[in-house]
Amino acid sequence: MIKKIPDYYKYSSKPVLHLSPSRIKVRNQVLDKIQKEIYKEETSKCLLCDSIRYTTIAEKDMYGLPVKTVVCDECDLLYTNPRLSEESLSTFYNIEYRNLDRLDGASIDDFYVFQKYKGQLIYSFLKDNMILDKIEGKMILEIGCGAGGILEYFKERGYSVMGCDLGAEYLNYGIDKGLNLIQGTIKDIDNYIEGKWQNIGLVIYEQVLEHLSAPKIELNLLSSVLQEGTIVYIGVPGIRKIEDNYEGNFIRFLQIPHLLHFSKVHLDYMMRQALFKPIFINEKIQGVFEKTSRLKKLYQEELKKYYPLNNIDYILHLNKVRQQKWNQNRLRNVYKSISLPVRDFLLKIFKRKK
Question: How confident is the model at residue 351 (pLDDT cuts 50, 70, 90)?
Fold first, then answer.
């Protein structure tokens, strides 16, 4: 149990990454809407185990927005509580999200090229784990496809593809490229293909699941329509890879549209509850799952057997390491600011003492 939130994790409007003036303007627009309650917030129970018991670990995100991240006292999942309401999230995605998230000067063309690169990575991951044979001759469906660049990579390799998303601007870009994309969700896909889910061999969720306010409902709906043996690929940011991918800075990992944060164990647990059997999963996180009708479930009491540290200990450890690096850099900068004669003098004194 954490006694108090580390000072670095307490709320401050100062971003922990460089934001251009245009992105600062968008960030301030979001902050103003939150403070004036134009964007409404709502409390949330744990998105994995439904518990209402939690411990607050941070009060801000990487943009300097007031986002409270909590750790479930029962299953150790990290999630946002309170979070923006469904209506406020929808407005945020339509108005501010892309301009806050996207680097200045980055166009939809750039985003599409980046998506195609991610498609190459996913394809290689599936090939390395011998999944391609399982989806041969089948259609590939991506939920939350954006402009469809990932699907384009698979289409170029002979697969029939289909995608859905809510953002019209990006969808229209992909449609103009000749991709089969529709505006909507799984329910809209079901109507579009007239329930013929046996034609789907692979479903892709790439950096989508962490944005959902009800991921269990989404996965249960998917499970209810998929044929047994259908493959599902999940890519989400991995909480246990912060030291590798976010300079060891927990706050850089957090952003307002991400409503929950996975370790591979928590994703495994959630997928099992929806009858998806894990084939391969790592801490990055990249996971491949197979729809099944019978599966031994992973129970909550098993979760804490996976790690010697729980999430609170791990996050506090990250802050300790970050502080040590900051102190080292500060001393290094002070040393560099000293003139060469003074440096030589200090070194001589230091050598004498040794």
Answer: low
Q: Residue 133 has what DSSP assignment? A: G
Task: Write a three-state SS string for 70-117.
Answer: EEECCCCCEEECCEECHHHHHHHHHHHHHHHHCCCCCCHHHHHHHHHH
Quick check: 60 and 9 in contact, CB under 8 A?
yes
| C-beta pairs of 36-39 under 8 Å, 24+ apart in sequence | 38/88, 39/84, 39/85, 39/88, 39/91, 39/92
At 170-222, the pLDDT tens digits run 899 999 999 999 998 888 898 888 778 888 999 999 999 999 999 999 999 99
| Helix, strand or coil, per DSSP, at residue 234 | strand
This prediction's pTM:
0.86
Give how far the C-alpha of residue 253 lies from the chain's centroid of Cα atoms, to the nearest Å. Answer: 9
Rounded-to-integer distance, Cα 274 and Cα 298, Å: 11
For strands 41-42 and 286-291, give the pairing: unpaired
Paired tokens of 98: 């892309």
Q: Under 8 Å CB-to-CB from 6, ≥6 apart: which residues?
A: 316, 319
Q: What DSSP designation does 286 have?
A: E
Could you report the per-residue pLDDT of 269-318, keeping only the tens digit for each?
899 999 999 999 999 999 999 999 877 665 555 555 655 447 878 787 77
Task: Measure the CA–CA gap between 354 and 274, rounded to whole angstroms.
Answer: 64
> Is the CB of residue 274 less than 8 Å from the CB of residue 216?
yes
Nearest to 275 by CA among 253, 261, 257, 294: 294
